[in-house]
Design goal:
Elements: E1 4-10, H1 14-25, E2 30-34, E3 49-50, H2 57-77, E4 81-82, E5 86-90, H3 93-103, E6 108-111, H4 113-119, E7 129-133, E8 137-139, H5 141-154, E9 158-161, E10 165-169, E11 172-175, E12 178-187, H6 193-196, H7 198-204, E13 207-217, E14 227-228, H8 230-233, H9 237-240, H10 244-255, H11 257-261, E15 267-270, E16 276-279, E17 283-285, H12 294-308, E18 313-324, E19 329-335, E20 338-343, H13 348-364, E21 381-382
Helix pairs in contact: 1-5, 1-13, 2-5, 2-13, 3-10
């Protein structure tokens, strides 16, 4: 039997949850369709690091829009989130020069080596300085996703789990449990876009990015906030776009071609139980093989030892997968009233709530049923 909703959301990752939250707050009736029993994709396989201050351009706009939504949801849904900021360790003069250049735009406090060592137990003498990026947040992704879903249910959002979607069309979602009618259909399936909208995925060049991650106990190693390194600086837009990033990138790649081959983002976050998330590597393709080379994990652990002076014990290993495309975001309307949303870099947790809210707000208004008017596409979003 069919049933009508103002908004149907396909996918219960952070972008899908953000779309449901945006819609229900505006008085819409909302259903979320998720093929698994719980959120198991990119939303729960990341650092839990909401890296707001390292973004630029449209990514920074969506990250800034996400921040108050995360704070509100943490309060209302009752999950752990802290206004931690982000630490950056500079181990070379060129990394410190890059941080100094980035700090000119505000929101970054430069630290000397001693202050950095007070906030993160890096090996004495390894740092020449560092920085603290003020706006950033940290959460536990596995707990946050489940808590947000439970909170949305209290607001009236219906969840249809263990239910696959075979096709979407204007006004209707075809599922394995029957069709659902909706004024607006939001497809938020991240890297599985090609399973539901293959022509769109091929047209815009969306593929998959796989990564290797670990959760460890690091002995005395600890960080008071998520910790980035020089390998992170050459990845995030606010730093990577600066001229000073060239020297950092060239030196790192020349010194450690083995780490460069992993497309490393060497960073660390510490969870409330004291364990630390360590990562991560990156490799792209239309399909990602499930086989993780042990050499990658060995290098991640060796770099942990180099930075902290401790030999960690591994508690968990996992493979992350997220959508990767030529632009930071995908916002497309392949058919009237069918909207596809995705963060197509690795910053879905940082930007996903703001992306969904920003794009849906002009469509939904205050308490209005979903319409079919396409919002103005911000520069830099691929349609």
């Amino acid at each position: 039997m069919t049933r009508g909703f103002d908004v149907a959301v396909v996918g219960a990752g952070v972008v899908g949850l953000g779309a449901a939250y945006a819609a229900v707050r505006r008085g819409c009736s909302v259903v979320v369709i998720e093929r698994a029993a719980e959120t198991l994709g990119a939303t729960v396989r990341n650092f839990g690091h909401l890296c707001i201050g390292a973004q630029t351009g449209l990514a920074r706009e969506f990250a800034d829009a996400s921040r108050p939504l995360w704070l509100r949801l943490a309060r209302d849904a009752g999950f752990w989130l802290q206004e931690s900021g982000t630490l950056v360790v500079a181990r070379h003069a060129d990394e410190l020069a890059l941080l100094e250049a980035a700090a000119g735009a505000g929101g970054i406090e430069l630290l000397d080596a001693g202050e950095l060592e007070k906030r993160a137990s890096v090996r004495p003498g390894i740092a020449v300085g560092g920085a603290w990026v003020e706006p950033d947040l940290q959460t536990h992704p596995r707990a946050a996703a489940a808590a947000i879903r439970a909170h949305l249910e209290t607001l009236g959002v219906e969840f249809r789990t263990r239910t696959s979607v075979g096709a979407v069309e204007p006004g209707r979602v075809h599922t394995t449990r029957g069709p659902l009618d909706a004024g607006l259909v939001v497809v938020a399936v991240n890297h599985d876009l090609d399973q539901l909208l293959p022509d769109l995925a091929e047209a815009v060049g969306v593929v998959r990015c796989g990564l290797d991650m670990l959760r460890v106990r690091g002995g005395a190693a600890s960080v008071s906030a998520p910790l980035l390194t020089g390998w992170s600086l050459v990845r995030y837009g606010r730093f990577a776009a600066l001229p000073e990033a060239t020297a950092v990138r060239e030196r790192l790649h020349a010194e450690r071609p083995d780490l460069a081959a992993l497309d490393l983002n060497q960073m660390y976050t510490q969870l409330p139980d004291g364990s630390m998330i360590v990562g991560d590597t990156h490799y792209k393709g239309v399909g990602i093989a499930p086989f993780q080379p042990e050499a990658a994990a060995d290098l991640l652990l060796e770099e942990f030892h180099t930075l902290f002076g401790a030999r960690p014990s591994v508690l968990e290993r996992w493979q992350g997968v997220y959508a990767s495309g030529p632009d930071d975001f995908l916002v497309a309307e392949p058919e009237p009233g069918v909207l596809a949303l995705a963060a197509t870099t690795g910053i879905g947790m940082t930007t996903g709530l703001g992306l969904a809210d920003t794009v849906l707000a002009p469509r939904l208004g205050d308490g209005a049923a979903a319409g079919t008017t396409v919002p103005t596409t911000p520069e830099g979003i691929h349609r």
